Amino acid sequence: MDNFKSGFVSIIGRTNAGKSTLLNSLIGENIAITTSKPQTTRTIIKGIVNRNNSQIIFIDTPGIHRPKSKFNEAMINAAYNSIKDADVILLVVEAAYEKISEENIKILERLKDKNYKVILVVNKIDAISKEKVLKIIKLYSDIYNFSAVVPISAKNKKNIDILLDEIEKMLPEGQPYYDSEEYTDQTERQLVEEIVREKCLKLLNEEIPHGIYVNVEKMKLRKNKKGEEIYDIDIIIYCIRKSHKGIIIGKDGNMLKKIATYSRQKIEAVLGLKVNMKIWVKVSEDWKNNINFTKNIL
Ligand SMILES: Nc1nc2c(ncn2[C@@H]2O[C@H](COP(=O)(O)OP(=O)(O)OP(=O)(O)O)[C@@H](O)[C@H]2O)c(=O)[nH]1
Ligand SMILES: [Mg+2]
Q1: pLDDT at residue number 284
Q2: What pLDDT was estimated at residue 56?
Q3: Which of 20, 34, 39, 129 to probe ligand 1 with, by most ligand atoms within 8 A of CB?
Q4: Nearest ligand to residue 62 Cα
Q5: Is there an atom of ligand 1 within 6 Å of 30 CB?
Q6: Would the CB of 263 count as within 6 Å of ligand 1?
Q7: What is the CA radius of gyration of the chain?
Q8: I want to staple 13 with a disulfide (CB 3.0 to 4.6 A). Which of 17, 20, 21, 149 is the partner?
Q9: What is the SS3 assignment for 168?
Q10: pLDDT of 290
Q11: Residue nearest atom 9 of ligand 1, based on CA coordinates
Q12: Other Cβ atoms closer than 10 A to 21
């Protein structure tokens, strides 16, 4: 394996910029949940791309935003920590913005004078004119010396190969870190928890899903009468208020049924197995500010 290259690439940027959508497009699998709501990603998620002459390990991070709790502070710290060991950093920005967002100014301040190799990834070009894309590129290039600039559409997988080529050029020579069959560090349990959280984010209104935490209590494989493999999965959705619990369960339990059905369908598709799922909702008022809790899940 002469001249083989390997390294770590951190994907950072403002919340909702499309980082997790990009990770999924790079890997070619749905390993990170994505929604139109801010603060979707809460933890660092690794995705591995194996190419002929390189192995690239991508690190998706929680989006940068103004933190309002210890939990959110920990999310942002996790994002910034990921850049310390990165060989290349992808700063993902939205093409539609007319100016540089406050969060991105903060990120660029942290990257300054540190010799990082930073690629400016201008995302969502499917939704915007070429002129506007060029304008935003100029704005960013005027304030920071990027190693490369790549306009992409993470959603439509446009220019993903060009981005991979640019990254490969910047990686150091080295042996692969992971087996070539591996493509994520997410466990099945984490995937299940994230899928349920994704459905909550999509089905519930703004404030509630940000206060929830999903935990898999039990996950067991068994054979049913027909001899098919089936997963029995027990899940608890924790929320911060009694009133939220009522909304999550819904009238006649309809909302919870919806969450359970959509979650089960996606989990079955992702794991490729039948799923028998039970979900409960519990109130845990202050989990967001409980440091032990925060440590547990980050
Ligand atoms: N039009 C368009 N929308 C996109 C594109 N990429 C992502 N999106 C949408 O942008 C929204 C946010 O995407 P995510 O991938 O969840 O964003 P994120 O940066 O991971 O967000 P956080 O995890 O909250 O930091 C979703 O509704 C995506 O469908 C794109 O290339 N074009
Ligand atoms: Mg994300």
Answers
A1: 86
A2: 98
A3: 34
A4: 1
A5: no
A6: no
A7: 20
A8: 17
A9: helix
A10: 67
A11: 18
A12: 22
Please count the other Cβ atoms lying within 10 Å of the Cβ belonging to residue 7. 21
Span 119-174, pLDDT tens digits: 999 999 999 999 999 999 999 999 999 999 999 999 999 999 999 999 999 999 99
Ligand 1 lined by 159 (C-beta under 6 Å): no
Q: How would CATH label the architecture of 188-297?
A: 2-Layer Sandwich (3.30)
DSSP single-letter state for residue 14: B
From the CA of 274, how far away is ligand 1's center (Å)? 29
pLDDT of residue 285: 81
Long-range contacts of 289-296 (CB under 8 A, 24+ apart): 289/69, 289/70, 289/71, 290/70, 291/70, 293/71, 293/213, 294/70, 294/71, 294/74, 295/74
pLDDT digits (tens, 9 = 90+) for 66-78: 988 888 899 999 9
**Annotated domain spans of the chain:** 5-170, 188-297
**Other Cβ atoms closer than 10 A to 106:** 14
Report the CATH architecture of 5-170: 3-Layer(aba) Sandwich (3.40)
pTM of the model: 0.93
Give the model's pLDDT for residue 114: 84
What is the structure's pLDDT at 136?
Answer: 96
Among 31, 35, 18, CA closest to 197: 35
Residue nearest to atom 12 of ligand 1 (CA): 16
Question: Checking DSSP bridges between strand 118-123 and strand 88-94, what pairing results, if any?
Answer: parallel
Query: Which residues of the chain register pLDDT less than 50?
Result: 298
Probe target for ligand 1 pocket from 40, 101, 153, with the most ligand atoms within 8 Å of CB: 40
CA gap 2, 24 in Å, rounded: 29
